[in-house]
Structures are given as C-alpha cells and as structure tokens.
Amino acid sequence: QVQLMESGGGLVQPGGSLKLSCAASRNIFGVAEMGWYRQAPGRQRELVATITSGGSTKYADSVKGRFTISRGNAANTLYLQMNSLKPEDTAVYYCNQRGRVVIAYDYWGQGTQVTVSS
To answer: Over 90: is that where the pLDDT of 102 sits?
Structure first.
C-alpha cells in the first residue's frame, strides 16, 4: 500500500509564501500525472496544479502566476511553491499521484492545512 505524505502547510499572512512537499512511502512506477488539489470548508475538492510525466503543467486560473508545481529529484516527490497567498487560498491541500501498471491507480495523501489570515 502506497502512502503519500504532505508537509509544509501552516498559517501565513496574506501576501506570504509557503512551499508544500509530497513524498511517497515507496517508489511508484508508471506515474502519469502528479498534482495538488485543495478543499475549502463547504466546497468541493478542486484542482490546483498538475504535472505530467513529460513535464507539462496545468494550473487553476485562480493560482496562475502565483503557484508553481515541480517534481523533486527523488522519485515520486512533488512540490508546490505558493507565493502571494490570499485568504481565499485557505484550504486543505492534497497530493495526488495517478498512473497505470497493468491496472490503473490513484493515490491521495491525507492533506495539509494551509491558512492565510492576518
């Protein structure tokens, strides 16, 4: 069983920065896409940013120009650099890795809380 572990969340003032990290408990083969999603209270989980195995990235319009998704040198590590944070960025942020090795898989972390408040 693969576990994804997020870290780096916390409380930050508006305009501040945070960097989220995601690591897998073991190597995952066949990853096609890794991503960050978030869920604010009372709202559905939404895509923040994704990166494919080929390096193509996609961002939600609300975070374009402020957030940057990247992969680490270690296998199955993922980062999200968040700058110019706004109160509306407050949410639980989840790491996701999906792909296929014979059968498809879709792994999620437990989430890390990001709170943007003065």
So the answer is: no
